[in-house]
Amino acid sequence: MSTASMVPPATLDVASTPRTPFVRLVQVEWRKMVDTRSGFWLLTITAGLLALVMALIVLVVGLNDFQVDARGISQGMTIPVSLLLPVFAILIVTSEWSQRTALTSFTLEPHRSRVVLAKLVAVTTLAVCTIAVAFVLGALTNVLCAAVTGNPLEWNLDGSELVWLVIQQMLFFAMGFAFGMLLLNTPGAIAIYYVIALMLPLMVWGTLYAIFDWAKDVLPWVDLGFAMAPLSTGADPLGRPVDVEAVTYVQTAFTALVWVGVPVALGMWRILRAEVK
Amino acid sequence: MITVDRLTKTYGGFTAVDDVSFACQPGRVTGFLGPNGAGKTTTMRVMVGLTPATHGQVTIGGLKYHDIPNPGRHVGSLLDASAQHAGRTGREILTLGAQTMGLPKDRVDEMLALVGLTETEAKRRLRNYSLGMRQRLGIAHALLGDPAVLILDEPANGLDPAGIRWMRGLLKGYADRGGTVLLSSHLLHEVEQIADEMILIGHGRIVAQGDRNTLLSNAEGATTTLVTSLDNQTFSEALTKAGYVVDPVGEGLRVHATSEQVGRAALEAGAVLTDLRSGGAGLEDLFLELTSTTQRDAVPGGPVHEHMPALPPMPPVDSPTAPTGGPHA
Ligand SMILES: Nc1ncnc2c1ncn2[C@@H]1O[C@H](COP(=O)(O)OP(=O)(O)OP(=O)(O)O)[C@@H](O)[C@H]1O
Ligand SMILES: [Mg+2]
After folding, report:
1. Pairing of β B149-152 and β B29-33
2. CA of A57 to the centre of ligand 1 (A)
3. How far is A151 from A153, CA to CA, in rounded Å?
4. I want to staple B290 with a disulfide (CB 3.0 to 4.6 A). Which of A142, B204, B207, B260 is the partner?
5. Which residue ranges does UniProt annotate as crossing the membrane (chain A) (predicted)?
6. How does pLDDT run across A97-121, given as a tens digit for each residue?
7. Which part of chain B has CATH 3.40.50.300?
């Protein structure tokens, strides 16, 4: 209502309002992530689990005078990260639908892809922070273990493996985001994520891989974790050391495309066209 | 300011909004009236880009909603006051909106004060809000960006009488300052008091539009009078002879004429009247007639008046006999 003239204009004076800066959208999404109880508890539980894993490792090592190395610790610390971060990624998308806040979000920013991208940036920032915290705690665990056992401190962590481990975590995390976008339903997305990212690899693929030869050829084309195992652990899924071959990169790219790229594309298509109720 | 141009929205084979065109002028309050399921909410959702149109389009100030930069600063909308995170406090919900629009923090306090939510109420989570408190919060959210256009879906829903009166004043003031207000309702008397212009919609189609007087003049045929005289039988014959349609109702008669016409007929016939009154608001009847075709609307008994018989079956809205409003004034 900028005008004081008698005949109000029938057009909008939009020159004074530039479009919402992307950074502001990210800040709002960040705020939405942590201003609810579910967000708060998810953060608390993640932190608590990290501390718990750290304490367990130190305890076991201390009691058994058992040699643990930085590689083992880093793999231990990824458990809470890989369990809970994807839930964040799923919730940031699906809660807009379950709580129906998408109505407001998309009314205030009708370019829906910008909102989705802002969400991705916000939740990725959170993931990176969490991984950084896990890394620091892991290093601390290593120091503590050495102090408790009196063993020499060892930093036998392979830099490239660590980088790939982080990339793998981020891909699984993006997979959660993608499933959230595709299903727009919290329980459904979480269930499917856990089945595909955790249960199938542990209970089905692992068994097949150990028993059948064909599975050793097929599964790295099917499962992201199996495809990336040589890169992030330096070993095949059964723990036997292997060298990284060119096909490993192709398999990684292929499974990432299937489990992250395709659902993201379909999910975006769905969100852009959806009627927001 | 808001221009709806041949808007159609279909869901599968069902047409929720059928070739609807109208305009809302700045400086005026436009009431959007229709029974349940008429297509009001759907039309409003298309306006703010939440529902894609099947055909046609809506522009606001000449722009599609999608092309308005920072639209919350230009168009305030309230479509569903419950569509907020149940776990956020009222203040947090407004703060998120203000932050998205790039507004200063004190705007939130201003709006909370405006809609009469106290400091402690603002700290409560939405799931613990009463219906009226949610509605107030929703109105506050719509007003946050000081928009020139307001689109409100049943804003009075759940408000107490004081709140409704307050809202009426607020919307009038908004329009007087040059704002464009579109509000929907199914309660005619609620809209009648504030709307300068009314759009009547039934079954996804506009059945009439115009200001109160235009609508009433179209509705003349619907005006009836309830009358009781000492000798209804004789008076009824006199009325029929004078060319009026008369139905016996309860203790009296329903005459398809104005009270004045009936009074004059009584004078001529020398009938002694014991009761003479209007047989319901002309607009109300018009509204019901124009918009009711479904079983849901045909309430047995008559909702308006004790004298009223069960409504006769109405012609379908989109039948050729249904009156339609003239072109938009
Ligand atoms: N997604 C959908 N799929 C199928 N039908 C729909 C959908 N959305 C709305 N409808 C139908 O469209 C019609 C118009 O609904 P709308 O919500 O616009 O009505 P309304 O005028 O707002 O009614 P009320 O006064 O009850 O709020 C209804 O019959 C509704 O069932
Ligand atoms: Mg509605």
Report:
1. unpaired
2. 58
3. 6
4. B207
5. 40-61, 73-94, 115-142, 162-184, 191-212, 249-272
6. 999 999 999 999 999 999 999 999 9
7. 2-217
Please, what is the Cα angle at A214 between A209 and A216, to 5 degrees? 40
**Cβ–Cβ < 8 Å for B126, B87:** yes
Mean pLDDT of B289-312: 49
Q: Let me know if domain B2-217 sits in CATH 3.40.50.1220.
A: no
Domain B225-278 falls under CATH 3.40.50? no
Q: What is the pTM of this model?
A: 0.83
Of A78, A271, A69, the residue nearest A152 (C-alpha):
A69
Centroid of ligand 2 to alpha carbon of A156 (angstroms): 65
Start and end residues for every CATH 3.30.70 domain found in chain B: 225-278
Inter-chain touch A101–B83, beta carbons under 8 Å: yes
Helices (DSSP H) in A150-202: which residue ranges? 159-183, 186-194
> B21-64: per-residue pLDDT in tens?
999 999 999 999 988 889 999 999 999 999 999 999 999 999 99
What percentage of chain A exceeds 70 in pLDDT?
95
DSSP sequence for A228-257 = HHHHHHSB-TTS-B----HHHHHHHHHHHI
Which residue among B9, B15, B40 is best mutated to probe the pocket of ligand 1, counting the most ligand atoms within 8 A of its Cβ? B40
| ipTM entry | 0.87
Q: Identify which ligand lies nearest to the alpha carbon of B186.
A: 1
HSE of B293 in the Cβ direction (CA atoms, 13 Å)?
Answer: 17
How distant, in Å, are the alpha carbons of A106, A116, A183, A186 from that of A269?
Answer: 15, 12, 12, 19
Sequence ranges of the domains in chain A: 22-273
Query: Which residues does a 6 A CB cutoff place in the pocket of ligand 1?
Result: A 275; B 11, 14, 16, 34, 36-42, 186
Enter the tokens of residue B293. Answer: 């075709």
Tens of pLDDT, residues A187-205: 999 999 999 998 898 889 9
CA–CA separation, A33 and A89 (whole Å): 10
pLDDT at position A18 is 93
Test A108 with B97 for CB contact under 8 angstroms: yes
| Average pLDDT across chain B, whole number | 85
> How many angstroms separate the CA atoms of B75 and B59, rounded?
12
